[in-house]
Design a protein that fits this description.
5 helices; globular
């Protein structure tokens, strides 16, 4: 339902944040059962970064996202947001925290 590269980028990040709680719980369960989750997800992480690179570049070219941000920066912010949201937040504060992070990614002119 996103319209334009900026909207697609931010919608992707919102979806990523929403699904992260389930993903983190699943990853924790596998880790608790003795599986090496990090090595098993290397290919997925590389694919995620490749797709995020495309979304980010398009959003930056459209002037919707700060030009000084990299995919690694975005992933680090999203990881920190997801950890905070699963460990310290209510649903309402999770939305607020994500809004603050996304606002910080927006280009000044957006």
């Amino acid at each position: 339902t996103a319209t334009g590269p900026g909207a697609a980028f931010f919608e992707f990040l919102r979806t990523m944040a929403r699904l992260s709680a389930v993903d983190m719980a699943l990853a924790d369960s596998f880790a608790d059962a003795g599986y090496d989750v990090k090595s098993a997800t290397v290919d997925c992480k590389q694919a995620l970064i490749a797709e995020l690179d495309v979304l980010l570049r398009r959003a930056q070219d459209a002037g919707a996202v700060r030009a000084d941000m990299s995919s690694q920066d975005v992933l680090a912010l999203m990881a920190a947001t997801c950890i905070a949201n699963t460990r310290f937040s209510t649903e309402e504060s999770s939305r607020r925290i994500l809004d603050v992070v996304l606002d910080g990614l927006r280009a000044a002119s957006a």
